[in-house]
Specification:
The structure is a single chain. The longest helix is centred in the middle third of the chain and has 10 residues. This protein has 127 residues and is an alpha/beta fold. It has a five-stranded parallel beta sheet. The protein has a single domain, classed as Response regulator (Rossmann fold, 3-Layer(aba) Sandwich).
């Protein structure tokens, strides 16, 4: 069984499939379809890495309290697995908002779409 665990939080079709890479690197990938499922999975597994997309919270999508789709999960991650490295992918149109998230929560790397296998591998190797 692989020693490291990675949560792939897949909330859009833009999220690339790097399953083959993770297997090659001996990383066990858990594919999760929502932040709610990812938070629930934290009760069972402590990830070493998280790969997720950033979506800025325009309007009242996040009740005006949170910056993005990642806030609540990242707060939970800090408690459950504080050493986990979060890799955030985003669309070019979202780039201007990422600093609002990184000002309040730690993020290991930010990658802009299109994200290649080499991009993810380099970030994982640097961790």
């Amino acid at each position: 069984m692989p020693g490291r665990v990675l949560f792939s939080i897949i909330e859009s079709p833009m999220h690339p499939d790097f399953s083959r890479l993770y297997r090659r690197l001996d990383i066990r990938e858990l594919r999760l379809g929502s932040m709610r499922k990812a938070i629930s999975q934290l009760k069972k597994d402590r990830p070493d890495f998280v790969v997720a997309e950033f979506f800025y919270g325009f309007g009242n999508n996040y009740a005006g309290v949170n910056v993005s789709n990642l806030d609540v999960f990242l707060y939970s991650l800090q408690k459950a697995a504080p050493a986990a490295r979060t890799i955030v992918m985003l669309d070019k149109s979202q780039r201007q908002y990422i600093d609002r998230l990184t000002a309040i929560l730690p993020v290991h790397a930010v990658l802009q779409h299109p994200v290649s296998e080499q991009d993810i591998e380099a970030v994982l190797a640097a961790a």
